Amino acid sequence: MTIENPSREKIGEILKSKKRIAVVGLSNNPEKTSYMVSQAMQDAGYEIIPVNPTIDEVLGVKAYHSLKEIEGHVDIVNVFRRPEHLPEVAKEAVEIGADVFWAQLGIANEEAYDYLKGHGITVIMDRCIKVEHAITKAR
Q1: 88 and 25 in contact (C-beta within 8 Å)?
Q2: Strand 20-24 relative to strand 76-79: parallel, antiparallel, unpaired?
Q3: Is the CB of residue 64 less than 8 Å from the CB of residue 49?
Q4: Rounded mean pLDDT of 113-118?
Q5: Options 1.10.10.60, 3.90.550.10, 3.40.50.720, 3.30.750.24; which CATH number does 8-138 get?
Q6: What are the pLDDT digits (tens) for 13-47?
Q7: How confident is the model at residue 138 (pLDDT cuts 50, 70, 90)?
Q8: Which of 36, 59, 63, 64 has the fewest CB atoms in 10 Å of its CB?
Q9: What is the largest CA-CA distance in the chain?
Q10: DSSP class of residue 61?
């Protein structure tokens, strides 16, 4: 199956209604893209939940070692990991019942995409959540 993202309209609806984002691979280094993107989304009113086993906290929020440790529902799993790690993260996203799996710009994996679609999860790959948020706000 080929990776096909939802329409811009659908992405806009997702960003308007889904406000709790678990960020897998979020770095505590302010110069990293994951930090800058997550900080911008936090500033825009989204709840950011860091998922990174190598840090204790980032952006003033406790970091979790895995998605499974997070209490409560996760709307979006936003991933900043290399493509070969996506199938593993996809399995965790399904286990926790996340609504949306979002792989950042430059990140895609067909195996993970097929697995997630097979479990009814909305999948967005190779798109930046911050850029998409800016586009939907401009509309």
Answers
A1: no
A2: parallel
A3: yes
A4: 98
A5: 3.40.50.720
A6: 999 999 999 999 999 999 999 999 999 999 999 99
A7: low
A8: 36
A9: 40
A10: E
